Amino acid sequence: MKRYGPLIVADGVLVVGDPGRGHLRLREDAVVHRHGAGAGVVFAWEHLSSVRLDVPTTGFRYPGLASTIGLGLLAAAAQEDVGIGPDDGSVEIIVNGESQRLDLGRHHVGGYWRPTVVGAQRLLDQFIAHPEQRRLLARPEVLVDLAAKLARHRAG
């Protein structure tokens, strides 16, 4: 399983968000919003004019590591589960001219490193503006690698 920022490969599909909670599954023919393994709601790409991510971001490059260590230390000090989980983000989609806001689960407490979210957003924008590029979704691991490379390059 490959993951970078809000992008993850699950079951051979590129996913935006936490596949165990609210997430988008990007297929060549459609975007599917699902909760965990549920059936989900299917949106054909040709009906989408916009997909906008709204997730917390941070300038810190390794937010998952920091939050895991911090929560581990806090739980060890309290000697119990501290009950802190990631705040959900959301995604606004425009389908046939109508806006819908859908929940988007996150992988860890704290924001995603900003360049990873910018990269994921640009990828979504490309798939809407250039339908021929959606066939790249057949190789989601390559897309995650590309998004990681672009984010690191952009950050310098």
What do these coordinates show?
The chain is 31% helix and 33% strand. With 156 residues, the protein is of the alpha+beta class. The strands form 3 sheets. Strands 1-2-3-4-5-6 form a 6-stranded antiparallel sheet, covered by helices on one side. A 3-stranded antiparallel sheet has the order 7-9-10. A hairpin with a 2-residue loop joins strand 2 and strand 3. Helix 2 packs across helix 3. The protein is globular, with a radius of gyration of 16 Å.
List unreliable stretches of 5+ residues. Answer: 65-75
> What percent of the residues sit in helical stretches (DSSP H or I)?
25-40%
- How far apart are the termini? 26 Å
Q: What is the beta-strand fraction? A: 25-35%
Mean of residue pLDDT? 84
Helix and strand pattern = EEEEEEEEHEEEHH
Shape type: globular
Biggest sheet strand order reads 1-2-3-4-5-6
The total of beta strands comes to 11
Q: What is the gyration radius calculated from CA atoms?
A: 16 Å
Provide the structure class: alpha+beta
Q: How many helices does DSSP assign?
A: 3
Major β-sheet profile: 6 strands, antiparallel
At a glance:
The chain is α+β, with helices and mostly antiparallel strands.
Describe the structure using short key phrases.
globular; 156 residues; six-stranded antiparallel sheet; three-stranded antiparallel sheet; 3 helices; alpha+beta; 31% helix
